[in-house]
Amino acid sequence: MKCMKCCLTLFLFFGASGPVAGDAVAAYAKVASGAKVAPGDTAAPDAKVTSGDKVASDDVASPDGDHQFLRETQRELSKKWEAVRSFTAKTETVIASDRWGRTLNKTTSGTIAFLRRDGHPWLRLDLTTSEFFKFKATEKSNRQTMKSVSDGRVVTTVAWRSDGGIVAYRVKHAPLDADLGGEALFDALGEHHALTLMPSEAVGGRGAYVIRAVPIMPEKNISDAYYHYFDIETGIRIKLVGMDKEGKVEFVSTLDDLKLNVDIDVKLFELEVPEEARLRDLTGDQSPADQSEAPKP
């Protein structure tokens, strides 16, 4: 899938304070490996992951239910998602990946606001990211703040880097990258992955249906298997975990401090691109000469 751009861009969406320590990823290993967690319980660090060892594939929960039950669960979650008018939450993404000879340690944290308007999911993210990247003899560290808004059709993002540079871009809204629930997300997941309904878990005291997604084209993904945790009450995807073939956790994205159906001013979804930043339009809807301003949803 072309995914993880949201979880790395938005959740991320999409998805940062210094190099990621092993404990940051290990803290989620208990749930990610399929171990049962009682409501309100916190996933304790797993010594095997903290030490860098692999989690055996048979540590992962066994498939539960057939395809029909999976579709029924998706329809149930989609109905609940459509009933959500708005919400705010805190979000965090932790990445610790060693693939293709590249090392990436990255943490992104901040806030997210969601508003259903004009039949579209509107999103606003305010994030801080720090990362360490290494490839052969090249090592780079970067810290940036990022603001991103989406009107359900176009995503506009502005990032202020630690070196003083400002990067801005627009992309088309893609359910697989940007949605946090609903039929469009499930359809996109099914198109690009083999899906399995796993035993339900608890995330931050909230019950969650867990769907395991194995990419059909693994060479285009940053992980070999993804675990999507959907809140049973609201249908919101409140957690996403990526693992390699041997069960080692490579990244975790979470939503917490969820506040449902709150009043949100529509002006929050306006984002102006600074004059000193050149907007890179990747939607294909504008010519280069028209790329000086971001849309206001």
Report what the structure shows.
- The chain is of the alpha+beta class and 297 residues long.
- The chain has a single domain, classed as outer membrane lipoprotein receptor (LolB), chain A.
- Strands 7-8-9-10-11-1-2-3-4-5-6-12 form a 12-stranded mixed β-sheet.
- A hairpin with a 5-residue loop joins strand 10 and strand 11.
- The longest helix is centred in the N-terminal third of the chain and has 16 residues.
- The chain is globular and about 50 Å long.
- The N terminus and C terminus are likely disordered.
Number of strands: 12
- Terminal-residue CA separation: 27 Å
Kindly state the percentage of residues in helix: 10-25%
Shape: globular
Keywords for this structure?
297 residues; outer membrane lipoprotein receptor (LolB), chain A; twelve-stranded mixed sheet; 7 helices; 42% strand; globular
